[in-house]
Design goal:
This protein has 474 residues and is α+β, with helices and mostly antiparallel strands. It is 37% helix and 20% strand. Strands 5-6-10-8-9 form a five-stranded antiparallel β-sheet. A four-stranded mixed β-sheet has the order 1-2-4-3. Strands 13-14-12-15 form a four-stranded antiparallel β-sheet, with helices on both faces. The radius of gyration is 23 Å and the shape is globular. The protein binds flavin-adenine dinucleotide.
């Protein structure tokens, strides 16, 4: 279609949209749109003819129906905190779900709450807490990430080991389909054997099958006590063995098991204020263990005997158990500051990979050898959620070279080798950040033809005109 005709069509579309949603629901103001069309790290810049801000599911439905009528593609957006260039529009109509931030229902006896897509994760956690329950999802972007975005990226975070990913935390969903119809699947059921579990399709779909407008989420009992320890050890294999012992000793109450390399700790000490090393040592690795228990009695003894036995078995070199909230906060702050310190150190090739827990140590050892051989001038910072097999395996660009040129040129062969290794170990090239535009091309050849065919068939069935976040994921 010639540009002037397309422009006239867009003007007509915006007029109809404004009539349907009212002026509050539509914006073409460049200042208002600006933060929505670039990512928080400033890597990607997109554009959109219009920002749509529906306040209800019905308004989302009206907007999507109009998009279908005008043949316009849609990019859904929540907190725009995603890591893989999935939520930035490149000419698509941008639908922000942020105004849809109501609590629909809390059913304490059913351990469930129903929230709209725009509710921020910290608000969901607080709501659970005020109802004497726990909503366990927790991650670095929790102050901005929305329920809709977390569902669409199947977010994980630091408690996956005990509670699972977003996929495991969902009971029901409400979505607007690409033709604008509303599907109300907001069921608070733990058992429902009535055929395909359709909500699963929308979890991790990155907005490619429709818009999530609300969800019914699982709640859990609040633990009465958390015991947190900082452990020094020599090898990743010892960390994995310690994890197995911690799970057995606590009856599955390990809610955090995070690994930090000595170099990562050194960067945190260098770049982040108010941090001290809890247990200075030349050893190569640190592990943060957290047990969440229903009773304070015996909790400290449990952690002490776990660590005492591990020391006796020569699995660990040293350990400190937090005596108070400030010490717990220090241990977690070190872990959570690793990405910040890494950024201060320089740009890096990022690999958000996972392996079966039993092969994490092998991945870390072989991955390090590979980096030392292929890129001896680079620094390696490998850290993260050993407890669920997810490692952030990041390789900084060499000092003194153009970092961007390296990351997009020579560095790509290092990334390919790391992903080859993770695939050999039956792992995944994207453990928690998703695919977006960033890893779309690689996904297509990394997954089997059969798997890609099934994914494309689902997409075609629900979105035959490819108007929902086109060019992302598939
Ligand atoms: C500092 C930091 C730390 C992080 N740590 C972790 C971590 O430990 N574990 C982890 O798993 N992830 C982590 N993440 C990634 C995080 O999970 C995502 O950033 C978050 O889930 C995205 O939520 P959002 O509301 O910002 O969605 P957006 O970034 O706005 O969107 C993400 C994707 O979902 C789609 N989308 C958004 N809303 C909807 C909707 N309502 N319906 C349909 N599609 C929609 C978008 O089109 C896009 O494809 C981290 C991110 C940051 C910035």
């Amino acid at each position: 279609m010639p540009d002037d005709q397309r422009q006239a069509r867009i003007v007509d579309f915006i007029a109809k949209l404004t009539a349907a949603l009212g002026p509050k629901g539509v914006s073409t103001d460049a200042h208002e749109i600006e933060p929505h069309v670039k990512d928080w790290r400033g890597r990607w810049q997109g554009s959109t003819p219009v920002l749509v801000k529906p306040a209800s599911t019905e308004e989302v439905s009206k907007a999507v129906k109009l998009c279908a009528e005008f043949g316009l593609a849609v990019t859904p957006q929540g907190g725009n905190s995603g890591m893989v260039n999935g939520s930035i529009p490149y000419g698509e109509v941008l639908i922000s779900l942020k105004r849809m931030n109501r609590v629909r229902n809390i059913d304490v006896l059913n351990d469930a709450m129903t929230l709209e897509a725009g509710v921020i994760l910290t608000q969901a956690q607080e709501l659970a807490d005020t109802n004497d329950r726990l909503f366990p999802l927790s991650l670095g972007a929790e102050g901005v990430a929305t329920i809709g975005g977390l569902i669409s990226t199947n977010a994980g975070g630091v408690a996956v080991l005990r509670y699972g990913m977003m996929r495991d935390l969902m009971l029901g969903i409400e979505a607007v389909l690409p033709d604008g119809r509303i599907w109300n699947g907001l069921r608070g059921l733990r058992k429902d054997n009535t055929g395909y579990d359709l909500k699963q399709l929308f979890i991790g779909a990155e907005g490619t099958l429709g818009l999530v407008t609300a969800a019914t989420l699982k709640l859990f009992p609040k633990p009465a006590v958390k015991e947190t320890a900082w452990v020094v050890l020599d090898t990743p294999a010892q960390a994995v063995e310690l994890l197995a012992r911690a799970k057995a000793a606590s009856g599955g109450a390990v809610t955090g098991f995070e690994i930090v390399p000595r170099f990562g700790l050194e960067l945190v000490l260098k770049h982040v204020p108010d941090i001290r090393d809890p247990l200075p040592s030349p050893a190569a690795w640190r592990v943060l263990i957290e047990l969440s228990l229903p009773r304070p009695e015996g909790a400290r003894d449990m952690m002490e005997s776990l660590l005492g036995d591990a020391a006796e078995a020569e699995l660990i070199l040293d350990a400190a158990i937090a005596d108070n909230e400030a010490q717990k906060a220090l241990f977690w702050k070190i872990r959570e500051s690793v990405p910040v310190a890494e950024r201060a150190h320089g740009k890096a090739l990022k690999h958000d990979v996972s392996a079966p827990v039993s092969r994490v140590a092998e991945f870390l050892e072989r991955g390090e050898a590979l980096v030392r051989k292929m890129a001896p001038q680079c620094d390696l910072i490998a850290f993260g959620h050993v407890g669920d097999g997810n490692i952030h395996f990041n390789v900084t660009a060499p000092k003194g070279v153009d970092a961007d040129a390296y990351l997009e040129g020579e560095g790509l062969s290092v990334s390919k080798a790391i992903h080859d290794l993770i695939m050999e170990l039956n792992g995944s090239i994207s453990a928690e950040h998703g695919i977006g535009k960033l890893k779309r091309a690689e996904l297509a050849w990394r997954k089997s033809q059969v798997e890609m065919d099934m994914m494309r068939a689902v997409k075609k069935a629900l979105d035959p005109d490819n108007r929902m976040n086109p060019g992302r994921l598939l």
